[in-house]
Amino acid sequence: MTDIQRPEARSPRGFQDRRGSDLSAERRIIARVSEVYERWGFEGLETPAFEYVDALGKFLPDTDRPNEGVLALEDDDDQWIALRYDHTAPLARFAAQNWETLPKPYRRYAYGPVWRNEKPGPGRLRQFWQCDADTVGSDRPEADAEILAMGVEGLLATGLTPDQAVIRVSNRKLFDGLFDAGGITDTHQRLTALRAIDKFDRLGIEGVRLLLGEGRLDESGDYTKGANLPSNLIGGVETFLASVSNSEASRSEVLDTIANIGAGLGEAGDAALKELAAIDRALNAMGVAQDAVKFDPTIVRGLEYYTGTVFEAELLLETKDEKGRPIRFGSIGGGGRYDDLVARFTGQTIPATGFSFGVSRLAAALRSAGRSGPQTRGPVVVIVFSDDDMQHYLDAVSELRNAGVAAELYLGRAGMKAQFKYADRRGAPAAVILGGDEIAAGEVTIKDLDAGRAQAAAISNNEEWKAARPGQMKVARSALVSTIKSIIE
What we know:
Layout: H1 20-39, E1 43-44, E2 50-52, H2 53-56, E3 72-74, E4 80-83, H3 88-98, E5 106-115, E6 127-136, H4 141-157, E7 165-171, H5 173-181, H6 187-197, H7 200-212, E8 215-217, E9 223-225, H8 231-243, H9 251-259, H10 266-285, E10 293-295, E11 309-315, E12 319-320, E13 326-327, E14 331-337, H11 343-346, E15 352-358, H12 359-368, E16 380-382, H13 390-402, E17 407-409, H14 416-425, E18 430-433, H15 436-441, E19 443-448, H16 449-456, H17 462-468, E20 472-476, H18 480-488
Parallel strand pairs: 1-5, 7-10, 16-17, 16-18
Antiparallel strand pairs: 2-4, 3-4, 5-6, 6-15, 7-11, 8-9, 11-14, 12-13, 14-15, 18-19, 19-20
GO molecular function: ligase activity
Organism: Brevundimonas terrae
Subcellular location: Cytoplasm
């Protein structure tokens, strides 16, 4: 007999299956954040999962992997297409393609999965959901401030309290000024240095110093090439980072500190300070608290297309892993200004700014904090005893559904005990029992599974449980719907 070669049932690395409760948690976040976006006047937009590779551009930090960080394939017309790695690059393509017919500025929000060809790891997936809002066509700092204020409101809408998240803001032009003064003109060298600075909160000054120089060997043995900046410029960056590390300072105090550093920020740095000052004034006018949005010049963001102001939302909520050990989720969203992205298509500078919620990451963080929200409710389960009484069961389940109650007829072939176990695993609020005696008497037995779970927890032995029959009642058949609704409500 020939052995059958069977495939191993396994998920691809960096991808995961998600069931009801996880899906519900993400959908709640999307629904609540989208409601905020719409209230602020943003229009929904859905773009395809695939874009042409040249339209997406090569802006991801993980460029030493195949396909430059994206998941790509060659189409039958010999053109390469790739799954979108965020919602911003597709927006730039859409705006360029439809600019003549769009209201200007164009305000849109979008949500959906994105894909990245990154090295999978804890908390680092290759498919995850984001929910973005962007304004295309406004160079006003007030557009950045509005995005930030809306981001704060979105964080609160997800159920976080004001002390459980903060949005940190900086401007890439601050470091552009430092690089200009240090004579660094190579774009790749600048970007490598910015990505090193972006790891300041995780690696500290020593780790950043190594990455600004020749490179760093991490704990796993992987070596990351550095920016190879000259030592005097590395010292200047260190001085800058050390001088703005006061987390208690107000936004205006941070700007005053930067202005008085004397580290040679040049014209680019002066422009950044003016833009941040205008954002501060707008945030104050909108009543955005100092603790909700902070200026933190160590924030630079990893994506290459940012040109000015950048934001990063940090989770402050205490979270724990499966073993109860504290873990730090850090960033749960971010964004910034990208004034050159649309120009890749049109040759005309069209300013833009936006913010992205990491929906999957935030949902995972809330779950780790025991804040995943209410459990997903299963349907009411109608128990099956005999094929001869199938019409009665079908009538009951149809009556419940027609009344707006989620209900299902058990369609397996197990006995009653196993059917109750099934209903419990489904998270059913109740089970409907129509045995021969109930049908003959025009009655129905309803097992309130929620009440049964609560009462059974207080019962110490099996005999007591049998005597109490927790959560079980018998009512007239005509009272089925009203009784079930009272249990659910």
